[in-house]
Recover the amino acids of this structure.
């Protein structure tokens, strides 16, 4: 999908999120538009969905007004209801702000915008997302002779490889379906040389002088490249043309 298509989807979602009332139908419409575009967006969608479900249990009617000023808070039950609505409003505003941020990155004509977008990458495929973004910005990619990287899920929630397909990069091909616990899928990645600085819960990357980092998703305990942990150590990853490698995400 082209960047223009993603911008249109993000703008449509912004329009839905900017309205003063919401409903399950409206939220699902927005989620369908932007799910999978960016891992941070997916996390915020998940948060809104969780809070929305709690509000729906105490809210009469299908339409929810995204304002709490006029709600009474005289009784414990009213206070509880107002507190849950405020949580939804805050999560909703947070999601709306992130949609705007991601859209603005897509509108930048230079490589800097892509690199900044990747700098916010989180989750199992943050490494692939970040590396691909830098390659786009620097022009260091080959449309042929991509390396094969097997993505393996060991005990984690389904991995959504589609988050990195926001980058229209020749040579980059990610699985189109989620990778469930115990499953694996192959990604094709342009040849790269990546310096990796692993911390306790995060990994820093340096590709052709550009630096960025990503955090492990909640519940993840380790990320391995060809059987070796990337955490708490320094490594250099070399993806030679036609080579085969494996990235494993492990969760407790």
């Amino acid at each position: 999908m082209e960047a223009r298509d993603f911008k249109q989807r993000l703008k449509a979602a912004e329009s839905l999120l900017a309205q003063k009332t919401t409903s399950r139908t409206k939220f699902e419409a927005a989620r369908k538009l932007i799910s999978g575009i960016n891992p941070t967006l997916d996390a915020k969608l998940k948060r809104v969905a969780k809070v929305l479900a709690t509000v729906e249990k105490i809210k009469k009617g299908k339409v929810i007004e995204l304002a709490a000023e006029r709600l009474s808070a005289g009784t414990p039950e009213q206070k509880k209801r107002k507190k849950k609505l405020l949580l939804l409003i805050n999560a909703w505003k947070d999601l709306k702000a992130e949609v705007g941020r991601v859209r603005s990155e897509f509108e930048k004509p230079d490589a800097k915008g892509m690199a900044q977008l990747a700098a916010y990458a989180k989750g199992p495929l943050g490494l692939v997302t970040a590396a691909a973004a830098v390659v786009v910005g620097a022009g260091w990619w080959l449309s042929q002779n991509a390396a094969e990287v097997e993505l393996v899920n060991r005990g984690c929630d389904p991995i959504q490889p589609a988050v990195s397909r926001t980058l229209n990069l020749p040579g980059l091909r990610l699985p189109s379906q989620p990778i469930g616990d115990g499953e694996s899928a192959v990604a094709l990645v342009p040849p790269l040389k990546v310096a990796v600085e692993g911390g306790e819960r995060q990994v820093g990357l340096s590709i052709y002088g550009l630096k960025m980092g990503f955090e492990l998703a909640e519940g993840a305990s380790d990320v391995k490249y060809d059987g070796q942990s990337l955490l708490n150590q320094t490594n250099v990853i070399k993806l030679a043309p036609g080579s085969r490698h494996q990235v494993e995400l492990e969760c407790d």
User: Anything to note?
Assistant: DSSP finds six helices and eleven strands in the chain.
